[in-house]
Structures are given as structure tokens and as C-alpha cells.
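Appendix B, record 7
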Amino acid sequence: MTAAFRIRRQIGIDAGHRIRLHGSKCRHLHGHRYTIEAVCAAEQLAARGEQAGMVLDFAFLKDEMMREIDSPCDHGFIAELADVELLALFTPPDQDRAGFTQALKESLASNGFASTTQTALGSKLYVIDVPPTAENLARHWFERLAPRVAARSEGRASLTRMVVWETPNCAAEWPV
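C-alpha cells (predicted):
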């Protein structure tokens, strides 16, 4: 789409993760203050209704970002399904590890992610099928948010880019 109009919206979340195969300190449990930016574009602005003159109402975009990203991930831990040692730490004491992991795997297969607070400490756990790097999170959140942008704009706008800052100096974008 060659867009004549473009908007951007940012949110911030705090979340923990680890990159289990990393050769340096990122293999350890740690957290970030992520800044997530969604960029939306449209060839034409809405001609009528409450979004008249807009690509997409900023409040609508914020609502969807909060629903798809903030609500399941903020003040939680983002993990890779293959990180069995980490998932063992989250397994509730009244469940076996294999059953807990299988439930996460089934949710991931049907939803593209697994999200639960039924963990050993009652904390949020968000599981994806790839390492939770900024690059993978940018793609994952793009895929989650894109259909919501299309729906909220009545098909007029599309999500064109997600930018995920892990630190103020380091960001990943999808698509490039």
C-alpha cells in the first residue's frame, strides 16, 4: 500500500525475559522497559463517522495495543516454549511440569501465544514459540495487532510497522 497518511502510537510496558541460548548476560533472567510503537497507514482518511478525517482514531489504536500487548505482557514474563527450565519455575506446585507445558503448547498452537496467571507465584506468563528477542516480539505483536487495526478502521487502514525498543538505544522493527 502506498499510503498518503500515516499515524504512530506508542505504549510502554515492563516485562522480564531471557534469551536462553545467548552467549552472554542476556541468557540470565532480566527485564526491560519496552517502548512499542505501532505505525498505521491509509490511502484515504475516513470520510464520515466518529473517525472522519482520521487514518484511525488514536484512542482506538491505544485500546487495541493495550488489549493485545499491555494487558497480557505488562509486569509479566515473556518466555519461549522451548525454555523448559524457565517454564519449570512457573509451574504451579499442584501441577506436573509436563501437563503445565502441554497446556501452554496447546494454547500457543490455537492462539499463536499462551498467556496465564495460573503460575507458581501467580505472576503473568506470556509464552511464544520463538526466543523473546526484540525482533521476534516486533513480528509477533505486529501479527496480533494487524487484524485489529483493519477491523477498527473498517478496512481503511493497515498496520505497516511495529517498532520495539528494548532500551532507549536499541530497537527492532517489523517489517523492514
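Remarks on this record: Residues 50 and 57 are 8 Å apart (CA to CA). The beta strands are 5-17, 30-42, 76-80, 114-116, 124-128, 158-167, 170-174.
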